[in-house]
Each structure stands twice: as C-alpha cells, then as structure tokens.
UniProtKB/TrEMBL annotation:
<dbReference type="InterPro" id="IPR001853">
    <property type="entry name" value="DSBA-like_thioredoxin_dom"/>
</dbReference>
<protein>
    <recommendedName>
        <fullName>Glutathione S-transferase kappa</fullName>
        <ecNumber>2.5.1.18</ecNumber>
    </recommendedName>
</protein>
<feature type="domain" description="DSBA-like thioredoxin">
    <location>
        <begin position="8"/>
        <end position="208"/>
    </location>
</feature>
<comment type="similarity">
    <text>Belongs to the GST superfamily. Kappa family.</text>
</comment>
<feature type="active site" description="Nucleophile">
    <location>
        <position position="16"/>
    </location>
</feature>
<dbReference type="Pfam" id="PF01323">
    <property type="entry name" value="DSBA"/>
</dbReference>
<dbReference type="InterPro" id="IPR014440">
    <property type="entry name" value="HCCAis_GSTk"/>
</dbReference>
<dbReference type="GO" id="GO:0005777">
    <property type="term" value="C:peroxisome"/>
</dbReference>
<dbReference type="GO" id="GO:0004364">
    <property type="term" value="F:glutathione transferase activity"/>
</dbReference>
<dbReference type="InterPro" id="IPR051924">
    <property type="entry name" value="GST_Kappa/NadH"/>
</dbReference>
<keyword id="KW-0808">Transferase</keyword>
<dbReference type="GO" id="GO:0005739">
    <property type="term" value="C:mitochondrion"/>
</dbReference>
<dbReference type="GO" id="GO:0006749">
    <property type="term" value="P:glutathione metabolic process"/>
</dbReference>
<dbReference type="InterPro" id="IPR036249">
    <property type="entry name" value="Thioredoxin-like_sf"/>
</dbReference>
<dbReference type="GO" id="GO:0004602">
    <property type="term" value="F:glutathione peroxidase activity"/>
</dbReference>
C-alpha cells in the first residue's frame, strides 16, 4: 500500500439516520485509517428524485424493519438516535445551511462536522426538528458558531452559489449511481469505489487495504 492518504467522500443528508451512523464511524476511523475524509452534504430528496427511488417510509414492511434495525444499530454503533417517523417535509433549507458552512470553511471540515452532528441530534435524538430557522440557529450556536456567524451563514445559504453547490454535490452522488444515502466513495489508485450504507465498512476497509475492527476502533 502506498503512503498517500486515500480520499474518502461521505455523501449525506441529516434527515438520514443511517448517514449519521456512517458519519460517526468514519470520524472515529479517520485517526486510525490512512484516509482523508471529505464531507459531502447532499440532498436525499434530490437523490430519490434523480434515481427514481422513493422514501423507505412508503413500504410499510420496510419501514417497520428500519425502525427495529436502527434501534439495534444505534446501540451497536454508540450513536444516540431514537428511530421514529420524522415530521420534516424535506431538508432543502437545512442542507443549504450545511453546504454554506462547508463552503465557508472550505477544506477544514471542522465546523461542518460539528454543525451536522448538532442537526442530527435535533432530528434523531431529541426529535426537535430542524427546518425552522430558529432551530438551525440554535444548532449552529451549540456547534460553536457565534450568533453573527450563524446569521451570515443563513444569508449565504440562500445565495445562488450555495443552491448550485448543493445541486452539484447531489448530482455528483447521482453520477456515482446513488439511489439513497449514505454514499461512501473511496478513491483507490485513481479509481472510485462506491459503497451504499453504514453497513459496508468491512468490505470498504478490505478494498482500501485497511482493517475493520468494528464501530469502536481504539484511537492511535
Ligand atoms: N443498509 C443501509 C441502509 C441505508 C438506508 O436505508 N438509507 C436510506 C436513507 S436513511 C435510503 O437512502 N434508502 C434508500 C433505499 O434503501 O432504497 C445501512 O445499514 O446503512
């Protein structure tokens, strides 16, 4: 294996609980595996529309299975999500906000990580929701942004630049033939390898020449 770090892109939407699981595991492994983790905020609704897929909630048996599965995965992965049917009617404004944070800090990825986590908590831990601007502000403050920074990001999130950026990242996921999220794309020797879900890490690790030791790796 070469010493150069492998680029791993995580396409996610905070409406997706499985994306949260994948996000936390990759955040843990980025200090263990020789990877360069890139956050790619995308729109799950756009991925469903663009691929012709539909939300899992429309198939009752699938939905019931997902609730039970998420309870087990939450405990196994150590991510505090309480599965339920969220009332959110789409996360367009939310993911534009996350995109604005990601664009503002460019390569660093520190704030986008914190903001995304706070938004996931709002939907999936405390069930407070996220789409109302006041809830976005509150999550931004909890993530360590100042009130004026949040205000600036909310304005930026409505700009054409950010709308186009979210569209292009969602299209990038579709170009990798995504039909849902999370989508993890690893670049190995210049070739993209694509994995759907938070349950493909063993295979992914094998493909990038790393070792999967479960969802709680020991930090080095
Ligand atoms: N088996 C995957 C399931 C991931 C999943 O169900 N993702 C949802 C969004 S939270 C999705 O996009 N589903 C589309 C589909 O299953 O067709 C995992 O464990 O992560």
């Amino acid at each position: 294996m070469s010493n150069s770090r492998k680029v791993v892109k995580l396409f996610y939407d905070v409406i997706s609980p499985y994306s949260w699981l994948a996000f936390e595991v990759l955040c843990r492994y980025r200090n263990v595996w020789n990877i360069d983790l890139k956050f790619k905020p995308a729109l799950l609704g756009g991925v469903f529309r663009g691929s012709g897929n539909q939300e899992p909630r429309f198939v009752q048996n699938k939905f019931s299975y997902l609730i039970a599965d998420l309870k087990q995965m939450s405990e196994f992965f150590g991510v505090p999500l309480n599965p339920y049917l969220p009332g959110e009617k789409g996360t367009l404004n939310v993911m534009r906000f996350v995109t604005a944070v990601a664009e503002k800090e460019k390569e660093r990825g520190v704030l986008v990580e914190r903001v995304s986590r706070e938004l996931w908590k709002n939907i999936w831990s405390t069930h407070r929701g996220v789409t109302h601007p006041a809830l976005l502000t509150e999550a931004g403050l909890r993530a360590g942004l100042s009130a004026s920074e949040v205000e600036e990001l909310l304005i930026l999130s409505k700009s054409q630049q950010i709308k186009d950026k979210l569209k292009s990242v969602t299209q990038e996921a579709l170009d990798y033939q995504s039909f849902g999220l999370p989508l993890i794309v690893c670049h190995v020797n210049g070739k993209a390898e694509v994995f759907f879900g938070s349950d493909r890490f063993e295979l992914m690790a094998h493909r990038i020449g790393e070792k999967w030791v479960g969802p709680h790796p020991v930090k080095t």
